Structures are given as C-alpha cells and as structure tokens.
Amino acid sequence: MYPTTLAVIALTFSNYVLQPIFPNCLPPYMATRMLSTTCLLFLTWVNCSSVRWATRIQDVFTVGKLLALGLIIVVGLVQICQGHYEGLKPQVAFEFSRSPSVGQIALAFLQASFAFSGWNFLNYVTEEVVDPRRNLPRAIYISIPLVTFVYTLTNIAYFSSMSPEELLSSNAVAVTFGEKLLGMFSSVMPISVALSTFGGINGYLFTSSRLCFSGAREGHLPSLLAMIHFKNCTPIPALLVCCTATIVILCIGETHNLINYVSFINYLSYGVTIAGLMYYRWKKPNLNRPIKVNLMVPISYLLFWAFLLGFSLYSEPVVCGVGLVIMLTGVPVYFLGVHWKDKPKCIYDFIESATHVGQKLCYVVFPQIDPAEEKLHTEWIDKAES
User: Fold this and answer.
1) Where do the H-state alpha helices sit in the chain?
2) Single GO molecular-function term (predicted)?
C-alpha cells in the first residue's frame, strides 16, 4: 500500500515541477519518472542519515504546504466576495452529464479518501514520540479536523474560479488556478505544491519504513529489516526496501489506477483491522489498552466501510478485484516465510548469510531492548492470558 501511495505523491511532485516547462501538454513519461526517482533517492538518503534531518524537513515543508493552501483559500474567498461564485451554485456544482449510480458515488468517495489516507500514520512512530499516551491522541484530534477544514476551503476556492470541466481536464489544478488568478505570481503555485508533495514523500518514507521495521521485529518480515544503523539509529534496510518497491511501482503504474488500487486496499485493510480490534475487545477484555475510544467510533466506521467497499466493488469490479488479488499475494508469502517453521537447513543458511551481508553493507545491528519495557510487555501478556 505505502510504496504505491509514495509513487502517486512522487508523480504528483514531478508533474507540478515539470508543468511550467511543458505548459501545453503533459510532461514526458521518462522525465516524470526520472525526477520522481531522483526525489525518492535523495529523501531516502536523508532518512538514512539522520532522524533529526528527516523531522526538520517534515516540519519546514508542512508549514510551506499550509502557507500555499492558505494563499489558495484567501484568493478564493476574495473571488467569492467579489461575486464570482457561479461554480458553487447547487444547479452548477451538482449538475451531472448523466445520472450517477450509487456505486459511482461510492467510488468517488473511495478516490477522494486518498487525500486523507495519512490519518493513521502517527500510530507508526509512537516509539519516537515523546509521551505518546498524551501527545498521540492530541495530535490526531488536532490534525484530522484541521486537514478536513483546509481541504474543504481549498476546493471551495477552486470552484470559485474553475468549472468542473476545467478541474477534470487539468493535469495540475493548482497551476491552472494560479494562471487564472495570480497573474505574474502564478509561478508560486507549482513551486508551493512541489514543496508540499516533497514533504509528503518524506513523511511517507519515514512512517512506512517504521511499519516495515516493526513487522520485521515481530517476525513477519526478514530480520534484517528490524536492524538500525549502529551510529545514526535509522532503519536503513527498511528504508531501502520501501524506496526500491516505490521505484518499481513508479515504472509500471499510472496515477489514476494507482489511486484506485491503493484506496481499495487501504480501506479493506482498515476495516479488517478495526473488526479485529472489536473482536479482541470481546474475547480479551483484560488486555492492556493505554488509549481507549468509545465503541460507537469503530462501529460507525465499519458501517461506512461496508457501504463504501461493497458499492465500489459493484461499480468497478476489475479495478477492485485487481487490488484484492494484489493484497492476497501476501498469503502464500506468509505461509512460506512465517508460518512454515521447519524449513530445510539450506534455506536458513542462505537467510543467515544474506543477513550478514546486509549488515556489513548497511552497518546495521539489532536495537538494544529496554529491560523495563520488555518486563512491562510480558506483564501485559500474562494479564491478558489470566
């Protein structure tokens, strides 16, 4: 899921950077892929070198992203105050060339949800958050309403000066918006969006590599991915795997199809995960839960999830079916790599030698486990089992 999302953001970055150079046509295929790959390699190097550098880049580019969106919102509100809001009138905004089906509406929700697909990423870096029990819920409560508010106002601003047809035909909406309303300052838009997506790539690399790292530590991925650099304490093998997978997907996929695939897989996995959490609430009520939420939250989500995926599968069976097949390829990998314990000695020898080679190339070792945390984890398990 995450290399695919990274590929989409990287392609968006390269499209916005190259759009001013190719104003009357789409940027060349090879140019977008090469620029996207260069950006990915650079940010992978930054994340491998220093956690502090990666977080500083994230802070700076998040501020830049909000400033760019703030400029779009202000210009759009000025347009509305001047009476330019034809595109926002219900008879225009909700005019359809053909009657939409329920399945198409569900698919529209699925595609639009891609913009919010990072809502759960804070959970992947809890080990690197100061006082996560207090700061993690606070960050989620602040960020999700803020992102929703900003995205809504940004789209209202777009419709204040662009028709639905112009939005659909534009390869870079913010660039088209800037050309129409900012005049000589229109170059601010592609630069701002490029900086925004640059920060997005950095954030996805940072969090998805931690997911890889955690999975390896639990025994679901090769142990090499659970190792960190002996000096910089960065998960270099996990970062390299995420970067490599993203570059492969960049070369074989188109943006629109990638969004459909990843949105379907995202929501399928989210729903199954939340259903699993509810199952544990029922079967293991004494399990330690540092952060609790009202049961109505997961129940409401599951109802929406069932509607969304059911009608999306009905509307786009091929796209959703391919996404499901991609996800199911993990099943044989799980049985061969994790479930099958009695592998031949030659396989274990190969894994061990490959791990040693990877350690020498990346200068990585297993992180030291805090004895206090290990004892606390054991107590949680004992309490749940009792």
Assistant:
1) 2-18, 29-49, 51-81, 90-93, 102-112, 132-159, 164-169, 173-181, 188-217, 236-252, 255-283, 296-315, 317-328, 330-334, 345-362, 371-385
2) neutral L-amino acid transmembrane transporter activity
